[in-house]
Amino acid sequence: MNPKQGTMMRHLYIVVIWFDVISGLDVKPQKERYLPDYSKYHNLSAIEKELQSIANRNLNYVKLDFSSFTSRQRRSQLFIHLSNFTGRNFNQISSYQETPRLKVLLSYGEHAREFLPIESMLHLVKNLTSGLSYHSGTPQELFSRKVLSNIDLYIISMANPDGRKHLEVTHNYCWRGTSTGVDLDRNFDWEFAGKGSSSNQNDEEYRGPEAFSEPETNVFTGLANRIKFDLFISFHSGIKHIYIPFSDTKSKISKRNPPNFENMLDLASILSHSTQYVYKYGHSYDLSGYTADGTIFDYMAGVKKVPFSFAVELWGTNHNGPSCFDLFNPKSEDLHEVVKTIHPMYAKLFSYLIEWKEAKIRHLSDPLSDAPSLTFGYVLLGCIVIITVITALHGRYPICNRLYQRRRIVSLKSLSSTFTMYTK
Ligand SMILES: *[C@@H]1O[C@H](CO)[C@@H](O)[C@H](O)[C@H]1NC(C)=O
Ligand SMILES: *[C@@H]1O[C@H](CO)[C@@H](O)[C@H](O)[C@H]1NC(C)=O
Ligand SMILES: *[C@@H]1O[C@H](CO)[C@@H](O)[C@H](O)[C@H]1NC(C)=O
Ligand SMILES: [Zn+2]
């Protein structure tokens, strides 16, 4: 091969790679290194059954609504609501009443191939409900009591059930989208159709024909329209990252911050070292090498003004090659350990929110109790002095006697004498 042929081959090679990238090669099935063992991982029907049996055993604490929110192919998005419902007037979603409890919305299963976050959700729900049967005062019971009496926990357990079904039937463990191949997490009305998404139906980041084209988005908008959430998290896997909004291309250019950015950063830093794993955290547009337009957590922060909104990538290891299942999910035999390792993140999250809310309520009911600043103290003192002086002057030169009042020159000396006289 002469040098010229070598250059040609190289160019051809680059063109082939480039073509693979733009044609969305990674949605196609790949040779997998390992596959899920369904006696450890839950399949779609096992997830539903598990949630049903937990709810049946905890009628006062877990409510299922498996019919209000469904996919394009009419599969349930497995929406559940956890709280202490004892003595609460609860019938159906339309009668959710405003309570002083924190409103938290967690979303799982937006991307079909990411099994792990859903297993983490099941672990959380089992943890909260099983704590209820421990003796009162034990750490398990106290934790469940604290969470369920302070928080209305809303969980979209399976945001994209059609995608998950497609994956299970075809054994294409690279499948990410909905039944029509749309990436649900690019289909929202926040910078929709920006560069951080694709108009190509074969691309794994295909955004769909228009914002909210996918019926699967209804659960998010429907809930966010009715309930004023304090926090939203969209859970994913593939790497250990905690993303703060925004992730879109325009925000990256303008360095845009969401409302409540400082608090979000504070909570993200706490979550980043809440487990034995180390999570990187920061603006999504800085942390991940690419931008993402039309995402759910950007929408919740930017449009719905949810004070805390994150995307959390729960797990990932060093990975190369085109295989998919191992990129997003641990081996079946490691699953339980991984899920247990992640779990303390929820405890830190809930504690932080409960304290944040309590501080807010304290501040509202008694603004002075929250360590008044020195400046405020001086301003207050100044006001008292001025009022005292005016009252004193008034006493000596009543307002009706304007002639005398005008003649008086108010020097510092006379002010102090007036003050002394008045107090005597
Ligand atoms: C799902 O997994 C269970 C075992 O947990 C199995 O009995 C069932 O047949 C599976 N369902 C499908 C549709 O694969
Ligand atoms: C649930 O998780 C919390 C936080 O990690 C823990 O303190 C508690 O003991 C767990 N409860 C049960 C029943 O395992
Ligand atoms: C749930 O609420 C009821 C009624 O307020 C209360 O008696 C019960 O102790 C609560 N349960 C838990 C676990 O907090
Ligand atoms: Zn994902």
TrEMBL record:
One GO CC term on file: extracellular space
Lineage, top ranks: Eukaryota, Metazoa, Spiralia, Lophotrochozoa, Mollusca
Signal sequence bounds: 1-24
Pfam families for the chain: Peptidase_M14
Membrane-spanning parts: 376-399
Active site: 313
InterPro entries per the UniProt record, alphabetical: At5g42320_M14_CPD (IPR034269), Peptidase_M14 (IPR000834)
Family: Belongs to the peptidase M14 family.
Cofactor annotation: Zn(2+)
Organism annotation: Pinctada imbricata
Entry's Gene Ontology BP terms: proteolysis
Gene3D superfamilies: Zn peptidases (3.40.630.10)
Protein name: Peptidase M14 domain-containing protein
Any GO molecular function: metallocarboxypeptidase activity
Keyword field: Membrane, Signal, Transmembrane, Transmembrane helix
The Peptidase M14 domain, residue ranges: 40-338
